[in-house]
Protein 1
Amino acid sequence: MTVDCEAQMKELVIDALTDNLNTVIDFVDEQLEAADCSMKTQMQINVAVEEIFVNIAHYAYAPDTGSATIRVAVDGDPAVARIMFLDSGVPYNPLEKTDPDVTSSLAERQIGGLGIYLVKKTMDQVLYEYSEGQNILTLEKKLN
Amino acid sequence: MNITKQINGKELTIALEGKLDTTTAPELEQELEKSLDGVDKLVFDLKDMDYISSAGLRVLLSAHKKMIGKNGMLLKNVCEEIMEIFEVTGFIDMFQVGE
């Protein structure tokens, strides 16, 4: 039921600043703790959370600042983590960014776009929508 | 993140401990900025590093580019979780990864 789902969802509202990255990661890790997920999965989720949150911190409100809301729910059997990022900054769909060429040589290699590419490759599902003035990015990852 | 440097002739070994992420990558970048003069070979010992994001990859890539035309850059003692990130991003094909 929707009500149950909402009751299990934890929410953090925080200034979208890179200085707050560790607070965001700790918050997400707390919710994952009970699910007993592997080191590898936890690191992939942490990396994805970092890439998305830092993206919001750098670009959503620039040159001003604003807040981001992070919601985490872990449910289902096998357990799936669902992590939502909401911000009221400029509309931006990071999934539309062209994937970097990960086969190019060292001299030609560009780093841009690598963060969101990592997110797309390591998460099971990444969804973006713009609704009621908010960017809403949702990550889903099976925990085991 | 802890950064420990050891120079042996023209070979510089940098041991990294902790997380190489958005908040710590600039420290490593600054450290590299002042350490690569006269260095012919760069070795990163990642034995105690357990996390890397794209910000960390960016610094490793830029260090690697600076070693072009020299004896190169080696990453050693890379844990499974970080190796996976290198594989997904294709860095595994560029980097020399060893024991």
Protein 2
Amino acid sequence: MVCCKVKKQIFVWMLSLLLLLAASLGCFAAPTSLDIDPAGQAGSRSGSFSGTPNPFYSEYDPDKFNYSGPALAVGDQTDAIQFKMNCYGYALRFVLFGQATMTLAPGGGLAGCLQQPGDFASAADRSLVRTPVYGIPADTMADLVYNMQLDASRLGYSVVEYVPDTSVVAQFGSYNRLIAVVAGTCDYHFYMQHNDGTWSHKPGSSYVTNLSFGAPGSQQVLTNSNIRSLAATGIYTGGCVKFFVVTRDAVLDHPHFNTAGAGLPQHLFAEDDVAGDYFCQAVSANAAYVTGRLDFSTDEDIFYYDIVYSGLYYVWITTDSWEGISCEIYDMYGTLLAQNSGDDMFCVEQYLSSGLRYYLLVRNLGVLTSGYLIEIY
Amino acid sequence: MKKSHIIILAATAVLLIAGSLAVWTLADRWAAPPAPIQTADKENEAEERQKLEQQRYEEYWSQFAYMLNPDGSVKEEFLNDYYAIIDAQNPELEERRQPPVITDPIDALKASGYIWQAAVASGEIPADSRRLTLADVQALYARNLPFQEFIEAVSAIQPYPDWGYGSGQTLMIYWLQGTEDGTRLIIYPFENPRITLYFPKGDGIESPRYEVVTLYQLNVRYYEWNH
């Protein structure tokens, strides 16, 4: 009996020791903080993930803008974003709604839509829009800024001049953005700052670039430390350079109808969604359904969901594009979890856990813009 | 279960919690290696190295002192050079620099807007082909042509503008031949369509650089020619 009792006590003590050992190991294994890669380098999408949505975030992403498809001809219509914005549209995120018609530019080049400061003024302010006077850069700048303010007033953002007090301009991009405006003797130009301290621009209907004007080889990557001296080069040499802090976000999905020349105010409220192209610019879609529109051929709309109840979720896609759209579900680390495929183009299913954030990326599979409806349950 | 067993299990649970807390507290300390003891020699060595690095840094930048004003700001004429040096210190920038997309010199001229030169270089037009003059512009304007026909008439004389495309607006610049001072005709065909003449004037900083004369604002003729 005694032996049996001792055995039992030994068994209980051993069990306790095992529990103690397991608990200790658990202590070592338990993470002390959520292991989030701030640079977003982990996972299948890199470089643009952030835990906190920031619509002012921007990165240099020329492939999204620069057209590489078949050669276009005069009169062609296109959804390529390169031809749906100029330097002003690029810096202030105005994208032409619908297709751009290619026109013959001087010397045989092709031009698309070039937004002008003042194009977006309200109907009441249209008569106030100034025709910039060229020849005196300071006067041209005053006219451009005046027109920019009219646009800002209608669209609800602010434009405040920033005068750098050092040779290197300050970094913005958390609560607002920094742009540079150059008034030359016969034209103007805009640049935009990115969150990594570099700058880029889009000359007319041409490519987006982060290089300064100049002959190939002599161009420099534009940065916070050289933008003051390199902004006014090329045909802008001797021009007036000013910097402005704008509260207009960096999200590309702000299209407008092209009514230039028709004497009608530009329409900018055709915004089916304001979901950006990057994880940083994702917008909340914590509802049963969300509608959106892919506004140019390389457009991507990203929504996020904060899941309350764990379970198997179905994402149903309805689109007016016969070419279809891609719908991808990512976790909060940027890892692709599920996507629609050839077998089932209209539904994605995935188990989602409560308390976690998931991202839904909608991508154009064709070259034409299209609307869509996403239902999740 | 006997009372003794319950006591043992309770004691074990207390031990378990205490043990876990102890392990939790000590985990960081165990995981991190103890800080190395800095000896006096090592401290001196680090200090010396820091001094040397500072000296090298100052020596490097002293060669560019001529670029700076007494207050430390960069002289206007050296801004480009100075910033290029600063950026050269940043190795990440080199990674972000894209290789030039355009390698063909003619395409490079076109991309830079030098359309006339590109047409000459490609052999489309001879280098000594007819170019627009101020007298041509004056004669065309006297014909009272509508806006679009005026542009076509200009193109018939000189098929390629000297410079074209623009950034904010689409524009075509013709440097008028025979005007040594750089008088130019600028056509804005699409955005706020207009045709202007630029007559050089001041330095453009303290005084207007050009007297700008608008010939056409779309089809409206704006100017009574008196030049």
